[in-house]
Amino acid sequence: MAALDLFGRRWTLRILWELRTEALGFRPLQQRCDGMSSSVLQQRLTELQEARLVERDAEGGYCLTPLGKDACAELRGLHRWSERWAAELDRAVADDSAGPK
Predict the structure, then answer these.
(1) I want to staple 68 with a disulfide (CB 3.0 to 4.6 A). Which of 11, 41, 64, 75 is the partner?
(2) Separation in Å, CA 28 to CA 24, 47, 53, 62
(3) What fold is seen in the domain 2-97?
(4) 3 state DSSP class of 54
(5) Where exactly are the structural domains of the chain?
(6) pLDDT tens digits for 14-68?
(7) How many Cβ atoms are within 10 Å of 51's Cβ, its own excluded?
(8) Phi, psi (degrees; rounded to nearest 5) at 64
(9) 45 Cβ partners below 8 Å, 6+ apart?
């Protein structure tokens, strides 16, 4: 339940997504997150560091820890499922708009 609470917080998954391939400094990360407020970004980064999913690299950027990389790998399954779900919803909307058969 603690993981679901953490991942359910606004912006948490987006931050992990943006850090999945490279370390980013605070400002570039903020820009990639559609300019979220600096206070919210700082709060989420602190939470993710306390959870041992994100750490600072030698250059001062933020990057995923091995545990954070594992979390992202596990979340890929949820991402694949969500794509199938979205496609199913799109089909249902298309069927509904086609009218009675």
Answers:
(1) 64
(2) 6, 19, 19, 10
(3) Arc Repressor Mutant, subunit A (1.10.10)
(4) strand
(5) 2-97
(6) 999 999 999 999 999 999 999 799 999 999 999 999 999 999 999 999 999 999 9
(7) 17
(8) -75, 140
(9) 15, 26, 54, 62
Q: Which two tokens stand for residue 48?
A: 């993710």
C-alpha distances in angstroms, 21 versus 2, 17, 28, 31, 87? 25, 8, 14, 16, 26
**Beta-bridge mates of residue 76:** none
- Burial degree of 37 (CB within 10 A; 0-12, 13-18, 19+): exposed
| Residue range 22-33, pLDDT digits in tens | 999 999 999 999
